[in-house]
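Retro notes (design track)

What went well: tokenization of the new backbones is finally stable.
What didn't: we kept losing track of which sequence belonged to which structure.
Fix going forward: every design gets posted as structure first, then sequence, in one message. First example under the new rule, 316 residues:
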């Protein structure tokens, strides 16, 4: 499978009053990408401006950050034409690699706005180089490094300016090549863009990363029916397949994230986390992760539970 390193630049409303802002809060104005060889070297390039159709005035922050003028964008083609050129350039059997999770979300939104085919009928698998950088060089820190800071940390030569689609794809590719060659074991930790839920049960995501498992469900009518679903609510040890009795039943800290604990006699304490995602038509779907954790992590979950319990008592 080919790896396409992708970066996008986008503009937004200068006033926030346009009716389009809900459907397309960020309009893509530049697409940059590099294609990698089997040994992760850059072997081909894509770089195109997109002529704005929605936001005809450059937001001051966008202009300051990426140094693109509207007159330059007028030389490009509208998004439907540029996206067709881009996907033709990508070819078949590829996976995207990006710095962070935003690019695929905005690509999907722009495709949907123009009634163009989405990237698939299920959450899209991709490589988040920013996450992999954190795993390899930051001990898995949740505080994600900015691209230029990561380039500096790895002492990669800065030979072209940042904050343009192609240049940021270029630097992301350089970092990814370093990671892939130094720590190929982390390449298994792919990510999933969840802009849109699985279209059916057959499209649901079930993936075992070795150190944890992830399940992304198709839609439910509401949160209550999702949480009653057996696949969502059950706790199963992914090492031995045993259905476990919960030691701490599902509870929430914010009505969106739910936690539970169970114990496997053979493999230890299992932490479950359920994230409720809402769709545009008012339905919901679930992102569930299950992971074997230490006693210290389990104690942190119990502490969250006790705080919620105490808060509920005070509000009664």
């Amino acid at each position: 499978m080919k790896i396409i390193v992708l970066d996008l630049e986008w503009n937004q409303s200068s006033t926030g009053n346009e009716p389009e802002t809900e459907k397309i809060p960020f309009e893509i104005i530049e697409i940059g990408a590099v294609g990698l060889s089997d040994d992760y070297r850059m072997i081909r390039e894509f770089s195109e401006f997109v002529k704005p159709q929605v936001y005809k005035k450059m937001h001051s922050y966008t202009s300051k950050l990426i140094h693109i003028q509207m007159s330059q964008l007028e030389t490009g083609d509208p998004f439907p034409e540029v996206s067709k050129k881009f996907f033709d350039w990508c070819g078949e059997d590829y996976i995207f690699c990006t710095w962070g999770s935003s690019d695929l979300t905005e690509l999907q939104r722009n495709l949907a706005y123009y009634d163009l085919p989405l990237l698939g009928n299920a959450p899209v698998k991709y490589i988040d180089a920013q996450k992999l950088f954190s795993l390899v060089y930051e001990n898995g820190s949740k505080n994600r490094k900015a691209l230029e800071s990561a380039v500096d940390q790895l002492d990669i030569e800065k030979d072209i300016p940042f904050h343009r689609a192609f240049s940021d794809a270029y630097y992301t590719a350089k970092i990814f090549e370093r990671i892939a060659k130094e720590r190929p074991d982390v390449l298994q930790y792919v990510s999933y863009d969840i802009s849109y839920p699985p279209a059916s049960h057959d499209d649901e995501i079930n993936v075992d990363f070795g150190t944890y498992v992830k399940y992304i469900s198709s839609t439910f009518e509401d949160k209550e029916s999702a949480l009653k679903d057996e696949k969502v609510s059950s706790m199963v040890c992914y090492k031995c397949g045993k259905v476990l009795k919960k030691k701490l039943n599902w509870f929430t800290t914010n009505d969106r994230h739910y936690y539970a604990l169970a114990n496997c006699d053979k493999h230890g304490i299992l932490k479950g986390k359920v994230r409720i995602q809402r769709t545009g038509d008012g339905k919901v779907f679930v992102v569930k992760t299950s992971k074997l954790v230490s006693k210290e992590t389990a104690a942190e979950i119990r502490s969250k539970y006790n705080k919620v319990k105490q808060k509920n008592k005070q509000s009664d």
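Added context from the reviewer: The first helix runs from residue 60 to 66.
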